[in-house]
Amino acid sequence: MSDKIKVFKNPSELAEKLAEEFIHYVDNKSTLNIALAGGSTPKLLYETLAKHSNEIDWSKIHFYWGDERCVSPDHSDSNYLMTKTALLDYIDTPTENIHRLLGEDVPENEARRYDNEIKSNIPSLKFDWIFLGLGTDGHTASLFPNTENLKNTTDLCVVAEHPESGQNRISFTFSILEKADRISFLVTGSNKKDVIHKILVDKIVSDEYPVSLLFNKRKDIEWWTDENAVSGLS
Fold first, then answer.
1. Does pTM top 0.85 for this prediction?
2. What number is the average pLDDT over the span 70-83?
3. pLDDT score of 233
4. Which residue, among 168, 94, 82, has the nearest Cα to 133 in the 3D structure?
5. How far apart are CA 198 and CA 195, in angstroms?
6. What does the pLDDT average to over 76-102?
7. Which of 218, 207, 26, 59 is nearest to 128 (CA)?
8. Alpha-carbon distance 50 to 62, whole Å?
9. Is residue 94 within 8 Å of residue 65, measured between CB atoms?
10. Which residues have CB under 8 Å from 3's CB, separation 6+?
11. How would you class 95 by CB atoms within 10 Å of its CB: exposed for 0-12, middle for 13-18, buried for 19 or more?
């Protein structure tokens, strides 16, 4: 397999190795803008980083979120709340370094506000590292299959609607994702095997699998996976 596809026995081993990589990466940087993902595997990474909190200079890091559900920050669906309880509550980071997506505000207004906040704080629009998840339907962040948002190249953030629940979300667009210095997908579990096969082996590029559109532009994307997610791939 490509050296960009890193396979571990299980999600716990993946989280430990990625935490080691993260510590090394931060140690060699002066300031970093990091975009976080929701989901169970990223949560495990955040919990692992919390255990290593004294090994990292958190004042260097500015945290953003690649997507957020349009709920209050204390709602169980909130990506911010998940990150807070898994990591932020355990680290010493300046309040001004936490750039929360305000899921409780009017979605369209918040998408524009966050767009402007990114432009103000990161004029290059180039994040140092973006962590992403992968849905079984091929979506990443909250960019869902066959939606108009996939073609939006002017905005950094958009309002998205979950195709099944109808829940509103705010999401980065590909116009910001593809500029990142480093992109890492965190993908575990046998239920992700089919979609990974379509993207990495069949090399499908289609609106039906949004992540394929990003992968088609960025061949240097890292895949941090477990054995269940890539079993049978050559």
1. yes
2. 98
3. 78
4. 82
5. 5
6. 97
7. 26
8. 16
9. no
10. none
11. exposed
Q: Could you tell me the residue ranges of all domains in the chain?
A: 5-211+215-230
In CATH terms, 5-211+215-230 corresponds, of 3.40.50.1100, 3.30.413.10, 3.40.50.1360, 2.60.40.1730, to 3.40.50.1360
Burial 57-94 (b: 16+ CB within 10 A, else e): ebeebbbbbbbbbbbeeeeebbbbbbbbebbbeebebe
For residue range 101-147, list pLDDT tens digits in order: 999 999 999 999 999 999 999 999 999 999 999 999 999 999 999 99
Report the C-alpha gap between 66 and 140 in whole angstroms: 9
Q: Angle at Cα 149 formed by Cα 148 and Cα 153, nearest 5°? A: 110
Residue labelled with tokens 């080691």: 20
pLDDT of 2 above 80:
no
Whether the CA torsion 189, 35, 184, 147 is positive or negative: it is: positive
Determine the residue type at 6: K
| Single-letter residue type at 139 | H
Residue 62 amino acid letter: H
Please say if the pLDDT value at position 219 is more than 90. no
199: its two tokens = 């993207």
**Cα 29 to Cα 26, 57, 58, 169, 234, distances in angstroms:** 5, 10, 11, 32, 35
Buried b (16+ CB within 10 A) or exposed e, 163-184: eeeeebbbbbbbebbbbbeebb
